[in-house]
Amino acid sequence: MRLTEKEFKVPYSENSSNLIEHFANAVKVNIESTEFPTRFVVTKSDGQNYHCELGLIQGLKDKKQHELGSIFDFKKRDYENTDKFNTVLLVPTGIGSEIGGHDGDAGPVAKLLASVSDILITHPNVVNASDINELPQNGLYVEGSVISRFLMGTIGLQKVRNNRVLVIIENHKDESFTNAAINAVNAARATYGFNCPQIVVLNPTAKLKSVYTSSGCAVGIVENYNSVVDVLEEHKNEYDAVAITSIIDVPRSFHWDYFSLEGELVNPWGGVEAILTHAVSLMYNIPSAHSPMFESQEISNIDPGIVDPRMAAEAISFTFLNSILKGLQRSPRIITNQDLFTNDNILTSSDISCLVIPDKCIGLPTLAALEHGITVIAVKENKNIMENDLTKLPWAKDQLYIVDNYWEAAGLISAIRSGITPESVRRPLSKANVSDRNYVENFVEQKNRANTSEK
Predict the structure, then answer these.
(1) Tens digit of pLDDT at every position of the chain (455 positions)
(2) Domain locations in the chain?
(3) Does the domain formed by 2-68 have CATH 3.30.70?
(4) Which of 290, 356, 354 has the alpha carbon at shortest distance from 100?
(5) Buried b / exposed e across 430-443, counting CB within 10 Å, b at 16+?
(6) pTM (whole model) above 0.90
(7) Alpha-carbon gap, residue 125 to 128, rounded angstroms
């Protein structure tokens, strides 16, 4: 099996009230029968077409495709559970986000928004910082494609105390890198009780290669994906989550350019990692995460000097593995049995009050929030390469808020959570709408006269 990416255009929908179905139908005619979608994003809306990118598994058997369903399956929630205020924070991988597009540099944002939420659900890209992971105490570490399905209403999430995490390590040609990865796992076991039932040193493992799409997004190609699938099948029932570490093929210059260009180069590693973990989590309904390995001692010995703070965690790390181990330790269980959704211990889309995204981002989470009536806060300061005008989507009144920064987003969440109409704390305050009762009565009287005249 092979994991890859496809680009295509979708004409604007005349019936904008059901965009999920519109995109689902368009995808069907743009893929082969042996291709199965794992990821969907609209990179640009130009007034005539939606420019779309689609992550795919190639070579997945028909029987397995039927078992998995579709990433476009949507179950609209019947209500919002207002007992708690739970927030989903997304910073999509591979789009060059000013905040969160580098190495766990959206961690402070996660802590800020968690402080004004009962539960914050976010994904590895937000808090993974090589050997550092500062997930808030009330945060849930959830793989990106799992968040999409969660918001689409087809799965639930259950908190766990501790996951058994299977670790798959590429058998590096330089044994010191393999040894370092094993030492990282043992360090996690010794220092915070990480539960690792098995380390599998795999050769050959899946081959990850970073590529860029025409939009400038960092995505990738994964060859020999079967090697990962074989391990997951062999050790089935022995693990609750999986961590994978392997080399990502990028031009050698990227290791220098990434630091020296100070954010101008879209992080080339995260996109292909997401391609891999989307496929794993979708096929096996388990939390998953990937960390890169250095290609050689020569590359690991590069001294980038004093770097942009957003990239500093990468500059000081060697295995990049401990952030994903710590995140996967308590990543919530994925619940597919919808009969269990009424259980108080299961979080569903009905429990979500707010989605926070960088401005201009349209993917399945945004479309699902639109359909559910979930409040969406888009942050302008988190600039990225997407080219969409969110105001063009058919939002309900007061459903979409576009704010300048995450400080404002936190204040907005506090207001909504407190039951305060947000605009009431700003000035000028508009006057209340008043209907003239006499006007209404006169209108009815005139209408009755007109009807009498026609008769």
Answers:
(1) 999 999 999 999 876 678 999 999 999 999 998 999 999 999 999 989 999 999 999 999 887 888 899 999 999 999 999 999 999 999 999 999 999 999 899 999 999 999 999 999 999 999 999 999 999 999 999 999 999 999 999 999 999 999 999 999 999 999 999 999 999 999 999 999 999 999 999 998 999 999 999 999 999 999 999 999 999 999 999 999 999 999 999 999 999 999 999 888 999 999 999 999 999 999 999 999 999 999 999 999 999 999 999 999 999 999 999 999 999 999 999 999 999 999 999 999 999 999 999 999 999 999 999 999 999 999 999 999 999 999 999 999 999 999 999 999 999 999 999 999 999 999 999 999 888 766 556 666 677 777 766 65
(2) 2-68, 86-335
(3) yes
(4) 356
(5) eeeeeeeeeeeeee
(6) yes
(7) 6
The answer to whether 165 and 196 are in contact (CB under 8 A) is yes
Amino acid 295 reads E
With CA atoms as reference, report the closest residue to 330 among 118, 135, 198, 168: 135
* Residue the block writes with tokens 């630091």: 259
CA atoms 405, 408, 413, 419: torsion sign: negative
Cα–Cα distance for residue pair 429/437, rounded to 1 Å: 24
The closest alpha carbon to 164, from 328, 324, 24, belongs to: 328
